[in-house]
Amino acid sequence: MVVTCLVRWKNATGMRDLAYIQEHVTKSLHGKNTGSWSLGVKLYRDVVQNGNSRSNSHQMIQSSLHQQQNSRDSKLMYQVALGQQPGQVYCMVDGSVIVEAEKELEIILSRLKNLWITRHNVMIEGTSFEVGDFTLRVANILLGAAYKGLLLEISYQPCSAPNMATDLLREFVESVVPPTAQLSCEYEYDYELVGLSNNDFTTAHTGYQYMMLFRNDGLL
User: Fold this and answer.
1) How confident is the chain (220 residues) per 10-residue block, as mean pLDDT?
2) Which residues of 20-57 are buried (b: 16+ CB within 10 A; e: fewer)?
3) By the 8 A CB rule, do 30 and 175 touch?
4) Spatial separation of the C-alpha atoms in residues 126 and 142, rounded to whole Å
5) Rg (Cα) of the chain, in Å, rounded?
6) DSSP 3-state assignment of 99?
7) Predicted structure pTM score
8) What is the pLDDT of residues 12-31, one digit of tens each?
9) Of the four listed, 80, 130, 143, 188, which is most buried by Cβ atoms within 10 Å?
10) What is the signed CA dihedral for 208, 200, 135, 37, rounded to 10 degrees?
């Protein structure tokens, strides 16, 4: 199994910088375009039951305050579907453990509108490259009409231990993006906090990285 890291090029300019990456990787780094890839990220919020409502103004104010408190107390669930792992999704509720499930979970959740409602649904499509021992996946991040930078997913093939290829991953990233690029990235995590192994990397680790990137960067 490979190890991966994620990078968001925050000040990228859209198609121009995506074209720069593609040309630089294929011509300067002698990489090979291996086709398209995709990613899906969803954010769900649980439905808080408020009980029976009354019509008088005092009760309406109390209900409003109660709903605001419920909004703060409600739970969020992150769900990631990786194109390189079809048929599987990875979920995490409010920083608890990562759960791997069949793709059919999406259908089940869509029918449980009284328990979970979808707050955000992001689909990303891009291009994949092979560069020596590395796999690079690149795509623009579009949230509706808002452009949020360029996404890079880097996998290093010879390593399967989390947090053991940090320097190699960092050096590869620096070889791909220009010096002026403003990057958001995290190369190391304590995976055991969410029930994942700190010894063997899996696609669930990659799913968790996406959840952290989208949450910490305010993309969801």
Assistant:
1) 94 95 97 96 82 44 43 81 90 90 82 84 95 97 93 96 95 97 96 95 96 93
2) bbbeebeeeeebeeeeebebbbbbbebeeeeeeeeeee
3) no
4) 11
5) 20
6) strand
7) 0.86
8) 999 999 999 999 999 999 99
9) 80
10) -40
